[in-house]
Amino acid sequence: MEFSIKFDFKASNNKAEYEAFVLGMSMAQDAGALHLLACSDSQLIVKQVSGEYKPKEESMAQYLHHIEELKTKFKSFQLQQIPREEIVNADSLSKLASALDDCNTRRITVQYLPQPRVPHNIQAISLSDSDWRTPIRR
């Protein structure tokens, strides 16, 4: 799942990363996922969720606790750290919400269509040598 978020509140980079991660987990649960392989480019999130790092701030500890609760909703949960450049649309998604500042829409779905849904097998048919496009000769 890929998504973009527009915050209506101030958030540090770490808080924004956690908000996005929690939202992604919640969306996967809402979609009926039983097994979740989550990918993140955030070293902080990956290391804290794995238990390698301990949160220094209370707010980060609360996010971590919420993630632990969400993990129990899945039969299996894996978290994988990947380099940001490997997240193909990361830059586009991060800019999408900012680009929509003037838009009052709270939820926008963007679909990618690799090809038209209706095939375009149109053939030109000519019934005569002249039609309405033929110049008038006097």
Characteristic key phrases:
138 residues; mainly alpha; 4 helices; 36% helix; RNase H type-1 domain-containing protein; RNA-DNA hybrid ribonuclease activity
Tell me the layout of helices and strands.
Layout: H1 13-30, E1 35-40, H2 43-50, H3 58-71, E2 76-81, H4 90-99
Parallel strand pairs: 1-2
Nutshell version of this structure?
With 138 residues, the chain is mainly alpha-helical. It has 4 helices and 2 strands; from the N terminus they run αβααβα.
Q: So how many helices? A: 4
Number of strands: 2
Class of secondary structure makeup: mainly alpha
User: Gap between N and C termini, in Å?
Assistant: 66 Å
Mean pLDDT, all residues? 78
Beta strand %:
5-15%
Helical content band? 25-40%
Task: List the strand order in the largest sheet.
Answer: 1-2
**Largest sheet composition:** 2 strands, parallel
CA radius of gyration: 25 Å
The shape, in one word, is elongated
Order of helices and strands: HEHHEH
Low-confidence stretches: none
Domain RNase H type-1: 4-96
Protein name: RNase H type-1 domain-containing protein
Pfam families: RVT_3 (PF13456)
GO molecular function, one term: nucleic acid binding
